[in-house]
């Protein structure tokens, strides 16, 4: 029996764990791109997830933990190993405090808070993905980030379950301690919000959703903005004051200067109205997507001497 077969049988014996083989990962990415995983396992239960993680680590096989797949680019050849996904989606509120599992869809958390007259997340409306991913990447929009509302984060550190305060999470623009420690798996978060009129919060969120959906239609196979914006204080080149927003310089400004709008690689397109929006027009491949990203980075580097950094994460073999 091969290591993959043996591991599959061990995982299949874990209660409350759904296990499959040769599962196309395109089902779990916003781009709709990605070959099969040798083994795919998901659960809503912490105990089952911990057991699956222990099996994956002891198997000798490669493994990766994914969330909602919003910011994932999976290789066309898939993933030779085990893909684990924690999909717990419980939401609880007590006064101004909210506890959310990592598998909750971020928009569901936002709506949950708005219905209860809790202010602080409405500007994140329309950002795709899960709460765990939002914590991992410190998701934000319109001058606010989820970290502003985080009280604590519960996670697995590879050995035991731990709880970090917001300060210990080392949040900064689109960054957190979890990005530096890939073995740390976010399980849940506690948030503290402010009381406000639900009708006003709903209008704010709906107005933002309308703008976001015009720019990033929900049916579009994309990850939203592909590159991180720049903090003005970190930028080594001069830019017009008119493009600076809340201390940030859009990556789209530099991409537009190097002719990104309307570029095409196979069935991967850069939107003709937004230089930082790359999408799969239908039959796009990870190879073409990676190639286009690499070309854009090279153009900006050559023209401005700076590096644009992806918000996306890569899964699988991209050595080709």
SSE order and pairing:
Blueprint: H1 3-12, E1 18-24, E2 36-43, H2 46-59, E3 62-66, E4 72-74, E5 79-86, E6 91-94, E7 97-101, H3 106-115, E8 118-119, H4 131-136, E9 140-141, E10 144-145, E11 150-156, E12 161-165, H5 177-180, E13 185-192, E14 194-195, H6 198-215, E15 221-225, E16 230-231, E17 248-249, H7 251-257, E18 264-265, E19 268-270, E20 277-280, H8 286-304, E21 313-315
Parallel strand pairs: 2-5, 3-5, 4-21
Antiparallel strand pairs: 1-2, 6-7, 7-13, 8-14, 9-10, 11-12, 11-13, 15-20, 16-17, 18-19, 19-20
Helix pairs in contact: 1-2
Explain how this protein is built:
The longest helix is centred in the last third of the chain and has 19 residues. The chain is an alpha+beta fold and 320 residues long. It contains 8 helices and 21 strands. The protein has 3 domains: 84 residues, Uridine Diphospho-n-acetylenolpyruvylglucosamine Reductase, domain 2, CATH 3.30.43; 110 residues, Uridine Diphospho-n-acetylenolpyruvylglucosamine Reductase, domain 3 (2-Layer Sandwich), CATH 3.30.465; 99 residues, UDP-N-acetylenolpyruvoylglucosamine reductase, C-terminal domain (Uridine Diphospho-n-acetylenolpyruvylglucosamine Reductase, domain 1, Alpha-Beta Complex). A hairpin with a 4-residue loop joins β11 and β12. The strands form 7 sheets. A 5-stranded antiparallel sheet has the order 6-7-13-11-12. It has a 4-stranded mixed sheet with strand order 1-2-5-3, covered by helices on one side. α1 packs antiparallel against α2. 28% of the residues lie in helices and 28% in strands. The model has no long low-confidence stretch (mean pLDDT 94).
């Amino acid at each position: 029996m091969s290591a993959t077969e043996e591991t599959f049988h061990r995982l299949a014996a874990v209660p409350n764990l759904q296990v499959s083989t040769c599962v196309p990962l395109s089902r779990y990415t916003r781009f709709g791109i990605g070959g099969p995983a040798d083994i795919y396992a998901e659960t809503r239960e912490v105990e089952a997830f911990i057991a699956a993680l222990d099996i994956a680590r002891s198997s000798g096989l490669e493994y990766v933990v994914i969330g909602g797949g919003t910011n994932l680019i999976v290789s066309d050849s898939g993933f030779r190993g085990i893909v684990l996904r924690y999909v717990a989606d419980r939401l609880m509120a007590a006064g101004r405090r909210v506890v959310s599992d990592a598998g909750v869809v971020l928009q569901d958390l936002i709506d949950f808070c708005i219905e209860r007259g809790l202010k602080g997340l409405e500007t994140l409306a329309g950002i795709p993905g899960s709460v765990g991913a939002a914590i991992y990447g410190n998701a934000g929009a319109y001058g606010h980030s989820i970290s502003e509302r985080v009280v604590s984060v519960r996670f697995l550190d590879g050995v035991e379950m731990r709880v970090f305060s917001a300060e210990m999470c080392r949040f900064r623009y689109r960054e957190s301690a979890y990005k530096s420690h890939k073995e740390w798996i976010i399980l849940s978060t506690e948030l503290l919000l402010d009381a406000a009129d639900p009708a006003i919060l709903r209008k704010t969120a709906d107005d933002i959703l309308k703008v976001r959906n015009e720019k990033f239609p929900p049916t579009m196979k994309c990850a939203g903005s592909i590159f991180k914006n720049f903090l003005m204080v970190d930028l080594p080149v001069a830019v017009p004051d008119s493009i600076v927003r809340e201390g940030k310089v859009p990556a789209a400004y530099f991409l537009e200067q190097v002719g990104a709008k309307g570029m095409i690689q196979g069935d991967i397109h850069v939107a003709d109205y937004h230089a930082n929006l790359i999408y799969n027009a239908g039959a796009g491949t990870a190879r073409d997507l990676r190639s286009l990203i690499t070309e854009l980075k090279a153009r900006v580097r050559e023209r401005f001497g700076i590096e644009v950094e992806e918000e996306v994460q890569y899964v699988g073999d991209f050595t080709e």
